[in-house]
Amino acid sequence: MNIRILSKDTNNLRFLLENVDVAFANALRRIILAEVPTMAIEEVIIIENTSPLFDEILAHRLGLIPLKTDLENYVLPEECSCQGAGCTQCQLTFTLEREAEEEGVTVYSGDLKSQDPSVVPVSDKIPIVRLARGQRIVLEAYASLGQGKDHAKYQPVSTCAYKYKPIVQLEGDKCEACGECVTICPKGVLDLKNKSIVIKDVLNCSLCKSCEEKCEFDAIHVDADDSSFIFSIESTGALPPEKIVETAVEIFEKKVKQLQSLLA
């Protein structure tokens, strides 16, 4: 198995995974979506709420705010020594107290105060509720680790997808360099240079085969490499994208070892 990073920034990662089958690629994708744990608000205690939102809607909005996650200092509640009762190893507390005094105000995610500065909302500009003059919110919220298979709010990614690595072949002796394939390609994979067609960016190919269908001379062939996959991951900001993949691989390895022990 080979892995090559194609592009990376704060929340996005694109990499090429080679010499594996589709079952492996799909298992990795499903683990990323369903089993890589992240922090999210699970329980909310409303002390005072005179805002336009019902308590349940307010709690729902708080639960969907993505939180920066520390996997080194927290464990899943079911794996904690307190057995999920709630302790500093598996749970942390947020408080929110805001009142509109003279004029209306918007309550943002940045108004949540965390007892752990390493676990805070990924953005302090997520709107929660608009308060009119005299309205007030006071609450406590408890966050814990969870997995996407239990609730979508725990998914570490907003996008996790893969495609087969494209194979684009040009037959120069048949090609008339008419440029029709270049024009019709929606991804800019091909280019016309010095009166000949060249492949500019094969990995950007979406395998739509528009160029192949457009070519009247049967000079271009598009196929997929079923042992190589291009992954695209967009993190919610809870974890860096490379950390998400590393954690997914660790979970995958653990599952394989458990299966081996059962079959031994």
Q: What does this entry look like structurally?
A:
By secondary structure, the protein is α+β, with helices and mostly antiparallel strands. It has helices at 22-34, 55-63, 180-184, 210-214, 241-263; strands spanning 2-8, 12-18, 38-49, 91-99, 105-108, 113-114, 127-131, 136-146, 157-170, 190-193, 196-199, 220-235. The strands form four sheets. It has a four-stranded antiparallel beta sheet. A hairpin with a 3-residue loop joins strand 1 (2-8) and strand 2 (12-18). It is elongated.
Helical percentage: 10-25%
pLDDT < 50 stretches: none
Spatial strand sequence of the major β-sheet:
1-2-12-9
> Roughly what is the average pLDDT, rounded to an integer?
94
- Give the CA-CA distance, first to last residue: 25 Å
User: The biggest beta sheet, please?
Assistant: 4 strands, antiparallel
Radius of gyration: 25 Å
β-sheet strand percentage: 35-45%
Number of strands: 12
Element-by-element helix/strand order: EEHEHEEEEEEHEEHEH
- Main structural class: alpha+beta
Counted by DSSP, the helix tally is 5
Q: Briefly, what is this?
A:
With 264 residues, this protein is of the alpha+beta class. It is built from five helices and twelve strands.
Helix-strand layout with pairing:
Layout: E1 2-8, E2 12-18, H1 22-34, E3 38-49, H2 55-63, E4 91-99, E5 105-108, E6 113-114, E7 127-131, E8 136-146, E9 157-170, H3 180-184, E10 190-193, E11 196-199, H4 210-214, E12 220-235, H5 241-263
Helix pairs in contact: 1-5
